[in-house]
Specification:
- The protein is α/β, with parallel strands linked by helices and 422 residues long.
- Among the domains are: 116 residues, 3-Layer(aba) Sandwich (Rossmann fold); 117 residues, 2-Layer Sandwich (Transcription Regulator spoIIAA), CATH 3.30.750.200; 48 residues.
- The protein is built from 14 helices and 20 strands.
- The strands form five sheets. Strands 2-1-3-4-5-6 form a six-stranded parallel beta sheet, sandwiched between helices. Strands 18-15-16-17-20-19 form a six-stranded mixed beta sheet.
- Helix 2 links the parallel strand 3 and strand 4.
- The radius of gyration is 22 Å and the shape is globular.
- The relative contact order is 0.09.
């Protein structure tokens, strides 16, 4: 039986698809690249923004019209089940925490029977993965989170944090490296909260991972500033100086206004966020800083937005992921009075222009840099490589999965290059 899978959302969702694929392949199913050729369709959904949810509705409607057996997976199964019932009433459902049941769901669904698995306890650190990118292994270290942000549906979709055991995570990474992986993504809904439920923490996890032999680089994923308070930040930063760890820190601040952060129930102040970043910058030379900003939260005034602009000017991050506020049903912020869409558009444009300018200025400082990179992605007319600072570098020639010495000659707002790009 052939199956087609379509995936949306974060790296954790991508890994959920990789796990489901591996389990289905093991059972004798065959993966295909076109839903028209499939006997079974799986849609792994995301619900992070309203625009994304609308896209999910379009895909559900399309796949339902094929009359083929359909499985809806991912966060939408928990966040907006009502929409699934509207656009794909005959589809089977499987939640992120139940993906270890995908074979049972697939076999039942193919026989034109609807089934739902919405309350599971899958240990993703011991499940096999099919790597979309043969060089990159995504390893989920936990499921769920400890925060209660007013705008986010993560808690609805994935529940309270469930951390996976260090030994299981370490073995998964070892197996990945032995099978050719060179880049390891440590991911979850909030890496800084890892281990709080099982008596350990991210520092202890990283110390064990760094004992693994072989040449590979580790990308530590997003960490909420709230849970930095429970960690020895200096000790964590020192681990980023290890030759196997990307000098890359993703800490989402979301707003430059303490009033808005309080309204969002983020649990930290702008000053605390800056203190954490400063510790990393002091200990890890030239570290790449990434953050997230939500523009137009319902209580955000013009003065609040100005504070966000001031923060970005002071922080000068390398990467900023900008999102306009999106009201997700079921969240605390859903019923708040929304700002005018024109205001959101204007503020988003102003912030985007500022970020682009800062990113370009910072990237220009890398011109002339020489050093080792890992080629981790094939793109049109060449490859994307990463240096140890996780900077994306376009190169014309190379081999996927190899390390190579390069010299950066050109800089652009979003990437670096060894050749001129027209």
């Amino acid at each position: 039986m052939k199956f087609y899978i379509e995936t949306y959302g974060c790296s954790a969702n991508r890994n959920d698809s990789e796990i489901m694929i591996a389990l289905l392949l093991k059972e004798g199913f065959e993966l295909c690249n076109n839903y028209n050729d499939a006997d079974l369709i799986i849609l792994n959904t995301c619900s992070v923004k309203q625009a994304t949810i609308s896209r999910m509705c379009e895909r559900m409607k399309l796949f339902s019209q094929t009359k083929k057996p359909l499985i809806i997976a991912g966060c939408l199964t928990k966040v907006r089940k009502d929409l699934i019932e509207k656009f794909a009433p005959n589809a089977s459902l499987i939640s992120p925490s139940s993906i270890d049941k995908i074979v049972d769901v697939a076999k039942t669904t193919i026989n034109n029977k609807k089934v739902e698995f919405l309350n599971g306890n899958a240990n993703k650190a011991i499940l096999p993965s099919f790597r979309f990118n043969k060089i990159i292994e995504i390893v989920q270290i936990a499921e769920g989170c400890l925060s209660n942000c007013t705008f986010c549906a993560t808690k609805i979709a994935r529940g309270n944090i469930k951390s996976f055991r260090i030994g299981d995570i370490k073995r998964k990474i070892e197996n990945a490296i032995n099978s050719g992986a060179k880049e390891i993504w440590i991911t979850s809904q909030d890496n800084s909260a890892y281990g709080r439920d099982i008596g350990t923490n991210l520092i202890e996890l990283l110390e064990e991972i760094l004992k693994i032999e072989g040449k590979f680089w580790i990308r530590v994923g997003m960490m909420n500033p709230l849970h930095f308070k429970k960690l020895e930040v200096e000790k964590l930063a020192e681990l980023f100086n290890n030759e196997k760890v990307f000098k890359f820190l993703h800490v989402p601040v979301q707003s430059g206004s303490n009033k808005v952060l309080n309204d969002m129930q983020r649990g930290y102040t702008v000053e605390e966020f800056l203190e954490f970043v400063e510790i990393f910058r002091k200990i890890v030379k030239n570290i790449t800083i990434a953050t997230d900003i939500i523009v137009g939260y319902p209580t955000e005034t013009e003065k609040d937005f100005e504070k966000t602009l001031e923060l970005i000017k002071e922080l000068k991050p390398d990467v900023v992921n900008i999102s306009r506020f999106s009201a997700i049903k079921g969240t605390k912020a859903y019923n708040l009075k929304k700002l005018n869409s024109k205001i959101l558009k204007e503020r988003s444009k102003e912030l985007t222009n500022l970020v682009r300018k800062i990113s370009f200025e910072k990237n220009k400082k890398w011109i002339g840099w020489k050093g080792e990179v890992l080629i981790d992605e094939k793109v049109k007319n060449g490859f994307i490589a990463r240096n140890i600072y996780y900077k994306p570098i376009f190169i014309k020639e190379g081999e996927l999965g190899t390390f190579k010495e390069v010299k950066i000659k050109y800089a652009y707002p979003n990437f670096l290059s060894t050749v001129k790009i027209n």
